[in-house]
Write a structure and sequence with these properties.
Layout lengths: L13 H6 L7 E5 L4 E2 L4 H11 L4 E5 L8 H4 L7 E5 L5 H5 L25 H12 L5 E3 L1 H5 L5 E3 L4 E3 L2 H5 L3 E3 L4 H16 L6 E2 L5 E2 L2 H9 L7 E6 L12 E2 L3 H6 L1 H15 L7 E5 L2 E5 L8 H8 L6 E2 L9 H6 L2 E3 L1 E2 L10 H5 L4 E2 L2 H12 L7 E2 L1 E3 L13 H6 L19 H11 L6 E2 L7 H5 L5 H17 L4 E7 L3 H7 L4 H18 L4 E8 L6 H13 L7 E3 L7 H8 L15 H8 L7 H13 L4 H7 L30
Helix pairs in contact: 2-8, 8-9, 11-23, 25-26
C-alpha cells in the first residue's frame, strides 16, 4: 500500500512551497472544488500536466472570497499566470435544482458544505485577482467558462449574457479539455522571459515576471494558440476578419432578436463538432470575441500521458476525516475515454469534450487499475469502467476522410451513421482482462449505456455477434443489481427534439434485459432516466409517459426536470422559443407552475399527488387516462404495443435492429 508524503500533492500553502524548497511559483490555479489529486478532477489534471512540462504549479482550493482576500494573497504573484478553474460542474447547477432550490449538498466540497464556493466563482475569483494583481494575466478554464465563451442564456438570472470575459475581466479562456493549450501558453511565456522580452516586469531580486502587456504581445495579439478565446477591437483581430471566419450575429442584436440568437447556436455547435473547424467571431459592444478552433482530438499516446501522471488519487491531507461526496462516488472507478458522439440536445459533453472519441490504451487502463488495488479501503470491486457514455470505447469512423468532412452533431441520431464502427469487441476484451487481474473480484459499469448502439444491426456479422456477446456479459457480470439507461421520454416527437432513439428501442432492450436475467437466474432491475419540461414536451406527453411506464411496472425515481444550461440546443430552444436548426417555434414549459405540472406525473403512485393529477387530466381533456393510471395495471396497457410504446403516438423509425 502506498505511503504518501505531503509533497506528493501539488502545494496549496506557503509551508508546502517551503517543503519543496520553492521561493516562488510559475502558475497558481484557483479552484472552486476541494483539491482531489485524481484524473477526474480538472484542476488536478491541469496542475499535473504543467508540472510534467517543467513548471512550478500551486493550487488554492476553495479560497475564502470574503474579507481581506488572504487566500488570494498567500502565495503571492506567479511568474507566468493565474488560472481560474471553477470546478467539475457548472457552479449554478452544482448549487441549485431546476426549481432554483438549494441542493442537499455540494458534491465537490468537504462534508458537502454549501458555503465553500460563491455563485459564479469564475467571475468572483477573477475580479478579486484583478483587484489585487491588476497586471498579472488571468486565464479561465473549466466547464463554467468553456460553455460561456459566447452569448449564452443564464437560467438563474433569466437573461442572455455576453462572453464571460466581459463580465470577469480575465485575459483569456481555454475552452474544452485544456491540457495542450495551457502547456503551449506556458512555454510561449517562458520563452518570452528567456528572450528578455522588452515589456517584462522584474521583482526586487531581479527575477523576470510576465505581465498583461507581455501576455498581449506574445499570446493575444498573435492569436495563434488553438482552443482559446480572447477579446479584440476590430482593428486588432489577428489577420483581420477573414472570408472563412464564421461571423455570428452581434450580442446586442441577439438581445433584441431571439431568432438571431437561435441561428447563432447552430453555427457554434457545428464548429464544435468538426475535425477542421473555422474561427468564430462575435461583436460584443465595442469589441469582438474571437474563438480559435480547437486542437485536433488527442492521440492515444497523448491521453495516456495525461492519465499516467503521478496522481495520488486521494484528497489533499487537509481534508483528513472529511467526506467529499463526488470523490467517494468515483474513487474506485476508471475513465476509459473522452468524448461522446451521442449529441443529445440537452447535454454539454460534446461542447466541452467534443464528439470524437479518444480512447486510452489497454495498458494505461490496467496501470490505473493496479493503482486502485493499492488504495486504502479497496475491496476488490471496481465501481465503474466507463466514460461519458459507457460503451463508446474505441469507436470511430471506418473511413477517416468521411469524418473530416462531417459536421453532424451526432453520429447516432437520427440514425446510426453507416461509417461508424460500433464493434464492442475491444471493450469486451478490456472488461475480461480487468476481471482476470489478481485482486479484482468484480468490475461494474456505473456510467450510462447507449442501448441504441447495442441494438444496431450492421453489415458486419462478426461485430453483430460481438455486440450481442457484450450485451449478455454486461447484464450478467457488470450490473450491480441495477443498470442505468436513459430513454429520457416516451413520446417520439419529444425524443426527436432530444436527439434520442424512439421509445420502442427501450422496450426492446428491456425485453432482452429481462430475458437474459431469467436465463441467468438473476433478479436485477433496469433503472430508466426521464426528463420533464424539455422543449416540445406537454402535460399530455407527461401523462402518457406516466401510463406507459406504469404499464412497464416502473415506479420512477431517477427523474429530472429540464434545467437550461449554457451551450446546448435544448437551452437555446427553451430560451429563444425557436429551434436553432429549423428556426421554427417550439413550445416549452417555462413557468414554475407549468414545470411542476409536468413533473408531478412522474409520481403518479404517490397518494398525495393523485387528486392533483386527476384534476389536471380533466383540465387538459385527457380524463380517459385516469382509469389507465389509477385503475388496475395490466401487464401491458391496451393502448401500448409489445414494446411498451404508445400506439397513439408512435411513429415509424428506420434504425435497423437485430435480435440479441
Amino acid at each position: 500500500m502506498n505511503e504518501f508524503r505531503l509533497t506528493d500533492w501539488l502545494p496549496t500553502t506557503k509551508k508546502e512551497l517551503e517543503l519543496r524548497g520553492w521561493d516562488d511559483v510559475d502558475i497558481i490555479l484557483f479552484s472552486a472544488d476541494a483539491y482531489v489529486d485524481h484524473p477526474s478532477f480538472g484542476a488536478a489534471v491541469i496542475g499535473r500536466v504543467l508540472e510534467a512540462e517543467g513548471f512550478r504549479v500551486a493550487i488554492v482550493p476553495q479560497p475564502d472570497w470574503h474579507g481581506d482576500f488572504r487566500d488570494f494573497r498567500k502565495l503571492g504573484r506567479p511568474r507566468l499566470w493565474f488560472g481560474v478553474a471553477p470546478g467539475c460542474m457548472d457552479s449554478m447547477v452544482n448549487k441549485y435544482t431546476a426549481n432554483r432550490r438549494l441542493r442537499s449538498e455540494d458534491a465537490y466540497s468537504p462534508d458537502g458544505r454549501h458555503d465553500m464556493r460563491p455563485e459564479y466563482p469564475t467571475i468572483v475569483y477573477t475580479r478579486i485577482l484583478k483587484q489585487l494583481y491588476p497586471d498579472v494575466p488571468v486565464i479561465l478554464g473549466g466547464i463554467e467558462a468553456s460553455l460561456r465563451r459566447l452569448t449564452h442564456y443564464d437560467y438563474w438570472q433569466e437573461r442572455f449574457r455576453p462572453c464571460i470575459l466581459c463580465d470577469s475581466g480575465a485575459d483569456l479562456i481555454v475552452y474544452g479539455m485544456g491540457e495542450k493549450a495551457v502547456a503551449e501558453i506556458s512555454h510561449t511565456l517562458q520563452a518570452a522571459i528567456e528572450n528578455n522580452h522588452e515589456s517584462l516586469d522584474y521583482d526586487a531580486d531581479g527575477k523576470a515576471r510576465i505581465n498583461t502587456g507581455t501576455f498581449r504581445e506574445v499570446i493575444t495579439r498573435p492569436g495563434r494558440i488553438p482552443q482559446t478565446v480572447a477579446l479584440y477591437h476590430k482593428a486588432g483581430i489577428p489577420g483581420g476578419i477573414r472570408e472563412e471566419d464564421v461571423v455570428l450575429h452581434p450580442h446586442e442584436e441577439c438581445l433584441k432578436d431571439m431568432k438571431a440568437q437561435a441561428a447563432n447556436f447552430r453555427h457554434i455547435e457545428e464548429e464544435s463538432n468538426k475535425l477542421h473547424a473555422d474561427r468564430i467571431l462575435q461583436q460584443t459592444g465595442e469589441d469582438y470575441v474571437v474563438v480559435n478552433p480547437p486542437y485536433p482530438p488527442m492521440t492515444q499516446g497523448e491521453i495516456d500521458r495525461s492519465f499516467d501522471l503521478p496522481y495520488t488519487r486521494m484528497p489533499h491531507p487537509k481534508y483528513k476525516g472529511k467526506r467529499i461526496p463526488a470523490y467517494e462516488m468515483i474513487k474506485f472507478s476508471v475513465n476509459l475515454h473522452r468524448g461522446c458522439f451521442g449529441g443529445c440536445a440537452f447535454c454539454t459533453i460534446s461542447a466541452h469534450q467534443g464528439k470524437f472519441i479518444t480512447s486510452r490504451s489497454k495498458e494505461s487502463i490496467l496501470r490505473e487499475v493496479e493503482q486502485i488495488k493499492e488504495m486504502p479501503g479497496f475491496k476488490g470491486v471496481i465501481s465503474d469502467l466507463g466514460g461519458p457514455s459507457a460503451n463508446m470505447y474505441g469507436m470511430k469512423g471506418k473511413n477517416p476522410k468521411a469524418c473530416e468532412r462531417c459536421k453532424r452533431p451526432s453520429c447516432i441520431h437520427p440514425a446510426v451513421c453507416p461509417n461508424l464502427d460500433t464493434d464492442h469487441s475491444a471493450l469486451l476484451d478490456l472488461y475480461r482482462t480487468v476481471d482476470n487481474l489478481p485482486g479484482i473480484k468484480r468490475s461494474y459499469i456505473g456510467s450510462g449505456v447507449r442501448y441504441d448502439l447495442l441494438l444496431h444491426d450492421t453489415k458486419d456479422e462478426r461485430a453483430n455477434r460481438a455486440n450481442a456477446e457484450y450485451t449478455r456479459e454486461l447484464i450478467t457480470r457488470h450490473v450491480s443489481g441495477r443498470l442505468k439507461v436513459a430513454p429520457e421520454h416516451t413520446s417520439d416527437r419529444v425524443l426527436q427534439l432530444m436527439r434520442k432513439p424512439p421509445f420502442s428501442q427501450f422496450g426492446e432492450f428491456k425485453r432482452i434485459f429481462d430475458r437474459i436475467n431469467r436465463e441467468a437466474g438473476l433478479r436485477q432491475q433496469i433503472i430508466p432516466y426521464f426528463i420533464s419540461s424539455h422543449p416540445g414536451c406537454t402535460e399530455e406527453d407527461m401523462a402518457e409517459l406516466a401510463v406507459l411506464t406504469k404499464d412497464m411496472d416502473f415506479h420512477l425515481e431517477q427523474v429530472q426536470d429540464f434545467t437550461p444550461t449554457p451551450m446546448t440546443v435544448s437551452t437555446e430552444t427553451w430560451a429563444t422559443g425557436y429551434h436553432p436548426y429549423t428556426l421554427e417555434p417550439v413550445f416549452s414549459a417555462r413557468s414554475p407552475r407549468e414545470k411542476l405540472a409536468q413533473r408531478m406525473f412522474f409520481f403518479w403512485y404517490k397518494p398525495e399527488e393523485q387528486a392533483r393529477i386527476k384534476a389536471e387530466l380533466r383540465r387538459i381533456g385527457r380524463a380517459d387516462l385516469i382509469h389507465e393510471l389509477f385503475g388496475p395495471s395490466p401487464a401491458w396497457g391496451r393502448d401500448t404495443n409489445r414494446h411498451g410504446h404508445s400506439t397513439k403516438t408512435s411513429a415509424p423509425h428506420t434504425t435497423k435492429r437485430r435480435r440479441t
